[in-house]
Amino acid sequence: MEQSGSRVLRAYAKINLFLDVLRKREDGYHEIISLFQNISLYDRLIITKIERGIEITSNVNLPENILYKVWDVFVKKVKTPNCGFKVEIEKNIPIEAGLGGGSSDAAAFLKFLSDEFNIPKKNLLLLAAEIGSDVPFFLEGGTALVKGKGQIIEKLLPIKGYNVKILTFNKGISTKSAYEMLKPSLFGKAKCNVYKLYEAYHLRDIKNIQNCTYNIFEKVILPIRSDIVSGIKKLKKECIVASMTGSGSAVYGITLDDADYEFVSRGVEYEEIRL
């Protein structure tokens, strides 16, 4: 139940227009290069002050809710507030789908905390990277080239004018399991430079959008998930291009025609109303 004095944030999903893994790092993470794009599918976070601590509720079961980690990191690294917060999550972004819902929710809560306690942007990005590899991207969002283990963000001029169809499946895919399936022989095999794809979107160059769209995880996921293969084939008949996002299981299709979602130029934002 939304309460008086609550703030409401939207946490937008993302798709990977391009995703390659270049190597496995010495720290155990993988070195990636990816073109991230936010879309207009979003979760809502309704945040209300309480006396102390953190209370989190959701309309769906979240086995590992990343917002607890956000709170723990914030308290340990920044300060212990003289109040607490209740966070109600209206979850619309499917979990284990490669749409970044958990990271986006984390960024939204972190943005709220940073605004409440005046955290400098530089410190905020460090906190975000500690919470999760994708979290820094969502703090600004839109269109960005993402490198390293996800913490190196090159903000790009937004891609505009495209709409998105999303297909989801009952069975998700664990990101950890998907990365464990990758072999070094698969690394760095994309046939296009990621900037060529980015340029193709701006130029409405459909041929190069099709040629340069790439997701390394299709190499290991599609052979074991015929439902995802069927989903991509379906979207390719209806759209300019179709691909998995992240490590799956969701797939997206890009179209210039009407669709449920569109590209957006932000990762998280406040709703204009203050409850």
Can you put this structure into words, describing what you see?
- With 275 residues, the chain is α+β, with helices and mostly antiparallel strands.
- It has a single domain (1-275), classed as Ribosomal Protein S5, domain 2 (2-Layer Sandwich), CATH 3.30.230.
- The chain has 9 helices and 12 strands.
- The strands form 2 sheets. Strands 1, 2, 3, 4, 5, 6, 8 and 12 form an 8-stranded mixed beta sheet that branches. A 4-stranded antiparallel beta sheet has the order 9-10-7-11, covered by helices on one side.
- α1 links the parallel β3 (54-58) and β4 (84-90).
- It is globular and about 55 Å long.
Question: How many domains in all?
Answer: 1
Number of strands: 12
- Order of H and E elements: EEEHEHHHEEEHHHEHHEEEE
| Weakly predicted, low-confidence segments | none
What is the overall silhouette?
globular
Helical stretch tally: 9
Examine the coordinates and then state which fold CATH places here, giving the name of the CATH topology.
Answer: Ribosomal Protein S5, domain 2
